[in-house]
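Key result, reporting period 2: structure in, sequence out.
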């Protein structure tokens, strides 16, 4: 995406007026500082984002059961800004009174139509990939680093092990000693662009 296209995409997203953009090319520590600065327990949901769930109602039922055990006054819900897949938790969380944040790579700016309108605060992380580990490294990408570091509790609906982004984030959360709650769920086969 060239600079002019990126500026136009940013402007259109801002004019939509549905989200507070915390930063466009943030470093992980700045995003973590903002989210932690909200003074709440950060409950982060991980799962399918570029694809949907085969049983969306079932996934939302799991999310609602989890959310009902936390207070909206003391808990912030964090996801990766999509409205597809795990991002369907955003409207549910908002309807239950939770403040919401989203951490996503700066690559997502060009897919602004896929960004949930129910995200209160968005941190676009300066990154050249969507998350996971850096190539030929055990180090997390900046986006995944921010997602794990800002989280107090990780809730994974749909993805277990493997080599993917969520697997890398779960392993880092485990290394950091963060509680991880895993619920299996099947993905919908059709791919949805961001």
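The corresponding designed sequence is given below.
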């Amino acid at each position: 995406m060239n600079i002019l296209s990126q500026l136009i995409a940013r402007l259109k997203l801002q004019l939509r007026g549905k989200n507070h953009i915390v930063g466009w090319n943030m470093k992980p520590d700045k995003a973590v500082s903002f989210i932690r600065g909200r003074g709440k327990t950060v409950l982060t949901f991980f799962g399918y984002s570029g694809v949907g769930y085969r049983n969306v109602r079932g996934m939302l039922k799991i999310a609602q059961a989890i959310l009902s055990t936390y207070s909206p006054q003391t808990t912030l819900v964090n996801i990766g800004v999509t409205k597809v897949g795990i991002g369907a938790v955003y409207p549910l969380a908002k309807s239950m009174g939770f403040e919401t944040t989203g951490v996503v790579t700066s690559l997502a700016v060009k897919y602004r139509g896929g960004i949930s309108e129910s995200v209160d605060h968005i941190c676009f992380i300066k990154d050249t990939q969507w998350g996971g580990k850096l190539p030929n490294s055990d180090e997390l990408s900046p986006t995944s680093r921010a997602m794990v570091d800002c989280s107090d509790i990780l809730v994974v609906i749909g993805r277990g092990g493997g080599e993917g982004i969520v697997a890398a984030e779960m392993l880092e959360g485990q290394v950091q000693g963060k509680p991880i709650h895993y619920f299996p769920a099947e993905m919908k086969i059709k791919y949805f662009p961001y």
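The chain has a mean pLDDT of 90. The chain has one domain: 3-191. This case is discussed further under Risks and Mitigation.
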